[in-house]
Design brief:
alpha/beta; Alkaline Phosphatase, subunit A; 32% helix; globular; binds zinc ion
C-alpha cells in the first residue's frame, strides 16, 4: 500500500567543520537523540540540491527538491515572493520584490529599508497606489513583511529580463531599469514609470509627514530587484499524483508551495526567525499528514544562524528541530516515508550559501539500514544513497512510498 511522505527541510542545514565547535559541524555537535535514533535504521547520502558546484538559492533548490527543474521555470524570485503574500497571478505576469526606501532630492538612496519601516505604515503607503494602469498594463502594488513590498505587472508582451532599480548599496541613486529584449524593455519602462509615480505620491503623504515628525526616515521611494515571470507550471498533485501540503512560515517558501498548488499552513507562533515555535509546526505537520499524501515541513532559522556566523545558535536550532521530529515520528500512525535534509549549506564559517552538498536521510519501516548512528554531513558520505541531485529526490521518495510505476513488464 502507498505510504505517505514527510519531507523536513532545514534551511541552510549543511555546514563545514567549525573552530567554535572544536572542529565539528553543527549537526555533529548537536545533541539530537530523536533524529539519531531514526538514523540508526535509515539510509544516508549527500544531496547536491541543484548540481555539483552550483551554489543554490532557497527558491531554486526548493523547486528542484520538489521535482521541478528550476532551469526550465525559474526567472527570478519576484513571483514567489508575491505568491507568498497571497497575490493571485497568472502565467506571464512579471513580479518584482521591492523595499520601501529613503532617497534624497537627487534620488540617491540613503536608507535601503526606510528605517526598517513596517506595518501599519507600509500598508498605508501601499494603499495609496494599490492598482494603476501604465502603457496598457495593470500594475499592482502590495506591502509584504517588514520593509518589503511587491510589484506585479500584468498585460500583453511583457518580459522579465529586467535589471534592478535597487542599487544594492546606499549612496547611489535609484537605477533606471532596462530590459535585455523588447518585451523586457516594455516591462522596464513600466517599472520606471511606476517608480516615478510612487516617489511623487509618497513624498507628500500623511504617513511620511507623521514619520518625519517622529524623526523617522521618510519612506519616499521603492527599489526593485529579482524580477521574474510567473511560470506556467504543472501543479504538484497532477505531476506527482499526490496531494500536497506544506507547513512553513517564510514568505518565499509559502509562495513556492502556493505556486505549485499546495495547501500552506503557518501555525500560530511559527515564524521565519530564531523565536519560531517548532513544536507548533510539528503539531501542524501531524495534522496535515492525516489528510495529505505529501507534506513539506520547512524550518528557516538554521539558515539565519549560518548567515550570522552563529555556531551555537545553529546547534540550538538543530536540537529544537530534533525534539520536533521526535514528536512527529512518535505521533504518526501508519507507515510513513520520512526524509530530512537541507536546501543548501550555509556554513557558519562562510556566513553565506555554499556549494557543499547537504546530508540526506530517508527512513521507513522495513527498508535497508546503513548502520550509521548519527545524521550529519560526514557520516552521510558513507551512506548507501551516496550522492544524488535534487531532482532525483522526489522519484526516490515516491519509489520507497510505493507510489511509482514499474518500468517495463
Ligand atoms: Zn535556503
Ligand atoms: Zn540563506
Amino acid at each position: 500500500m502507498a505510504r505517505k511522505i514527510l519531507l523536513v527541510i532545514c534551511d541552510g542545514l549543511g555546514d563545514r567543520p567549525s573552530a567554535a565547535l572544536g572542529g565539528k559541524t553543527p549537526l555533529q555537535a548537536a545533541s539530537k537523540p530523536g533524529i539519531d535514533r531514526i538514523a540508526a535504521s535509515a539510509m544516508h547520502g549527500l544531496l547536491y540540491t541543484i548540481a555539483p558546484g552550483v551554489t543554490p538559492g532557497s527558491d531554486t533548490s526548493h523547486l528542484s527538491l520538489l521535482g521541478y527543474d528550476p532551469l526550465g521555470i525559474y526567472t527570478g524570485r519576484g513571483p514567489f515572493e508575491a505568491a507568498g503574500i497571497g497575490l493571485k497571478m497568472k502565467p506571464g505576469d512579471v513580479a518584482f520584490r521591492c523595499n520601501f526606501a529613503t532617497v534624497d532630492s537627487s534620488r540617491v538612496v540613503v536608507d535601503r529599508r526606510a528605517g526598517r519601516i513596517g506595518e501599519p505604515d507600509t500598508g498605508e503607503l501601499a494603499s495609496l497606489l494599490p492598482e494603476v494602469e501604465i502603457d496598457g498594463a495593470q500594475v499592482r502594488f502590495r506591502e509584504s513583511t517588514e520593509h518589503r513590498c511587491v510589484v506585479v505587472i500584468s498585460g500583453d508582451g511583457l518580459g522579465s529580463s529586467v535589471t534592478d532599480t535597487d542599487p544594492g548599496v546606499t549612496g547611489r541613486p535609484i537605477q533606471l531599469a532596462s530590459g535585455l529584449d523588447e518585451p523586457s524593455s516594455r516591462t522596464a519602462a513600466i517599472l520606471n514609470k511606476f517608480t516615478n509615480m510612487v516617489i511623487e505620491k509618497f513624498s507628500g503623504s500623511h504617513v511620511n509627514r507623521k514619520r518625519m515628525e517622529k524623526g523617522l526616515p521618510s519612506a519616499n521611494a521603492i527599489i526593485a530587484r529579482g524580477g521574474g515571470v510567473y511560470p506556467d507550471i504543472e501543479p504538484f498533485d497532477r505531476k506527482h499524483g499526490m496531494s500536497f501540503g506544506a507547513v512553513a512560515a517564510e514568505g518565499l517558501i509559502l509562495g513556492i508551495c502556493r505556486v505549485l498548488g499546495g495547501e500552506v499552513v503557518t501555525p500560530k507562533g511559527a515564524t521565519a526567525t530564531m523565536e519560531t515555535d517548532l513544536m507548533a509546526k510539528g503539531r501542524a505537520a501531524v495534522e496535515m499528514l492525516g489528510r495529505k499524501d505529501f507534506v513539506l515541513l520547512h524550518v528557516k532559522p538554521t539558515d539565519i544562524a549560518g548567515h550570522d556566523g552563529n555556531a551555537a545558535g545553529k546547534v540550538e536550532m538543530i536540537e529544537r528541530a530534533d525534539r520536533m521530529v521526535d514528536y512527529i515520528i512518535s505521533s504518526c500512525s501508519g507507515e510513513l516515508v520520512f526524509a530530512i535534509t537541507g536546501d543548501h549549506s550555509t556554513p557558519v564559517s562562510a556566513k553565506q550559501h555554499t556549494c557543499d552538498p547537504v546530508p540526506l536521510m530517508i527512513h521507513s519501516g522495513g527498508l535497508r539500514s546503513d548502520g550509521i548512528s548519527s545524521f550529519d554531513e560526514i557520516s552521510a558520505g558513507r551512506g548507501s544513497l551516496s550522492s544524488l541531485r535534487g531532482l532525483e529526490l522526489m522519484p526516490l521518495l515516491m519509489g520507497y512510498a510505493d507510489r511509482n510505476e514499474k518500468y517495463g513488464a
